[in-house]
Amino acid sequence: MQVSLCRSAMFLQDQGRWPARGTFPAPEVLDEVMVESDGPRGPLRHVGPVLRMERTPPRWETQSPILGQDSAQWKTAP
């Protein structure tokens, strides 16, 4: 899947969750879309998935790996 960060922001604006285009939302407005994850770089606060789905909630299992951290192979399911 490919996702455009710009289009994701526009999606939130189109839903009326952020101010008009050309303005940046206040930090307290961003709190509802921010998530925190822990990984090799330590705690990271970032924008989470922009969609909310009841049966299959979107999420990231881990942060992006540090270059060279993982071997070139598919990970197996837990």
Task: Explain what this protein looks like in three dimensions.
This protein is an alpha+beta fold. The protein is built from 2 helices and 2 strands; from the N terminus they run ααββ. It has a two-stranded antiparallel sheet. The chain is elongated. 0% of the residues are buried.
- Overall spatial form: elongated
Strand content: 15-25%
- Largest beta-sheet characterization: 2 strands, antiparallel
Instruction: State mean pLDDT (0 to 100 scale).
Output: 76
Assign a percent range to the helix content.
10-25%
The main sheet orders its strands as 1-2
Order of helices and strands: HHEE
Provide the gyration radius in Å. Answer: 15 Å
For the record, give the distance between the C-alpha atoms at the N and C termini, rounded to a whole number. Answer: 22 Å
Uncertain segments are: none
User: How many strands appear in the DSSP assignment?
Assistant: 2
**Backbone structural class:** alpha+beta
- How many helices? 2
